[in-house]
Write a structure and sequence with these properties.
The chain is of the alpha+beta class. It is 30% helix and 25% strand. It binds biotin. Residues 86-88, 110, 113-116, 119, 121, 130-132, 174, 184-186, 202-204 line the site of biotin (BTN).
C-alpha cells in the first residue's frame, strides 16, 4: 500500500490507469488497494469520474531513505511501519524477541497508542509523529534518574529548532504551547534495572493534525496549527535524533544534575501555584523545581515535599 500512497501523497488527482502503470499492476488492483487505504488506514480517498483519485488532504510520508540522507552522523537503526498498535508495544515485542538495542520504531499510525496514566494517544495516519527508541540501560537505576525529563528537554529543543519558540515543559514531561499540549513522552521499562534492562522512550508529537481525529480529553495543539504550514516530519525526526543523541549523551556521562538548571529554566510552571493529583488525595503547593532525581519539589503549607511516579498529574491553580 505504501508505494501507492507515495504516488497519492501530493493530494492531486491521479488516474487509475496512471497509478497502475507506475506500479506495474492493473487498474482493478489499484482500486482494491484504494479500498484498503480507506478501510485499514482510515484515509479518505476522493474519486471523481474523468479525473481519478486523490487523498482528502496531502501527506508528507515518513521515508527511511530521506531520513538516512538527512543524518550527518550515524544514528540509531530505524524502521517505519505503516500501522501498528503502539510503537512502544512493538519495541517491547522486538526486545523480547531478541532484537538488540539501540533501534527506533516509527509508525504512520497507531491503533492503540498509549499515553501516560492509562490514557489513549490519538494517532491518525500520516499526520503526527509516533516514535519509540529502545536503549539498553547499563548504569542501573542511576541511568534512569531524570531520564524522562531529559527526553523532554531534547524534544523541546527539536520543537524550538522547528520554530516552536513558545513551547515549554510541564512536569514531568509534557510539552505545552499556551496551556495546550503539543507532545508527550511515555517511558516503559523491560527487564530488571539491577540486571539486564531496556528502556523504551516513546514520543508522540502532534505535527500536522488540525482536527481532533479521536477524542482528545485535554486542550491540545499541533506544530502545523502553531506554525501555519505543513511540517516535514522527516526533517523533524532528524532534528529529534540529533537532540536526543546530544542530551542522552550528557545525561549518561554526568547524570540529571548536569541538566537540572536547564530543565527548570524551561519549566512553564516554575514558581506557580499547582495541584498535584497523587491518587489518594490532591496536594496543592508552589512549584520550587525538581530535585536531582527529577522528582517535583513543592512547598506545601510552608514545608518542602518531593513527589515522583508515573501516576502523578499536575494542574495549574486558577489563583496563580
Ligand atoms: C502522554 O500521555 O503524554 C504520553 C504520550 C506518548 C505517546 C507516544 S506515541 C509513540 C509511543 N507509542 C505509544 O504507544 N505511546 C508513545
Amino acid at each position: 500500500m505504501l508505494p501507492l500512497l507515495r504516488l497519492l501523497q501530493d493530494g492531486s488527482f491521479h488516474s487509475g490507469e496512471a497509478l497502475g502503470a507506475a506500479l506495474g499492476v492493473s487498474r482493478s488492483a489499484i482500486w482494491k488497494q484504494l479500498q484498503s487505504l480507506e478501510a485499514e488506514l482510515a484515509l479518505p480517498v476522493h474519486r471523481v469520474r474523468g479525473r481519478g483519485y486523490r487523498l482528502e488532504s496531502p501527506l508528507l510520508l515518513l521515508d527511511e531513505n530521506v531520513l538516512a540522507a538527512g543524518e550527518s552522523s550515524p544514528m540509531w537503526p530505524l524502521r517505519i511501519l505503516p500501522s501498528v498498535d503502539s510503537t512502544n508495544a512493538e519495541v517491547l515485542r522486538r526486545l523480547a524477541g531478541g532484537q538488540v538495542p539501540p533501534f527506533i520504531i516509527l509508525a504512520e499510525r497507531q491503533t492503540s497508542g498509549r499515553g501516560r496514566r492509562g490514557r489513549n494517544w490519538v494517532s491518525p495516519f500520516g499526520e503526527n509523529l509516533y516514535y519509540s527508541l529502545a536503549l539498553q540501560v547499563d548504569g542501573g537505576m542511576r541511568q534512569l534518574e531524570g531520564l524522562s525529563l531529559v527526553v523532554g528537554l531534547a524534544l523541546l529543543r527539536a520543537l524550538r529548532a522547528a520554530g516552536m519558540t513558545a513551547a515549554g515543559l510541564k512536569w514531568p514531561n509534557d510539552v505545552l504551547v499556551d496551556g495546550r499540549k503539543v507532545a508527550g513522552i511515555l517511558l516503559e521499562l523491560s527487564g530488571d534495572p539491577a540486571d539486564v534492562c531496556h528502556v523504551v522512550i516513546g514520543i508522540g508529537v502532534n505535527v500536522n493534525m488540525l482536527a481532533d481525529r479521536g477524542a482528545i480529553d485535554q486542550p491540545w495543539t499541533s506544530m502545523r496549527a502553531e506554525l501555519g504550514g505543513l511540517v516535514d516530519r522527516n526533517e523533524f525526526v532528524s532534528e529529534l535524533n540529533r537532540q536526543l543523541s546530544l542530551y542522552l549523551g550528557i545525561h549518561q556521562a554526568s547524570g540529571f544534575s548536569a541538566l537540572r538548571d536547564e530543565w527548570q529554566d524551561n519549566h512553564l510552571w516554575q514558581g506557580r501555584n499547582v495541584t498535584l493529583t497523587t491518587g489518594a488525595r490532591p496536594v496543592s503547593g508552589v512549584v520550587l523545581g525538581v530535585d536531582r532525581s527529577g522528582a517535583l519539589r513543592l512547598r506545601v503549607a510552608g514545608v518542602e515535599q518531593s513527589f515522583s511516579g508515573g501516576e502523578l498529574s499536575l494542574r495549574l491553580n486558577n489563583d496563580s
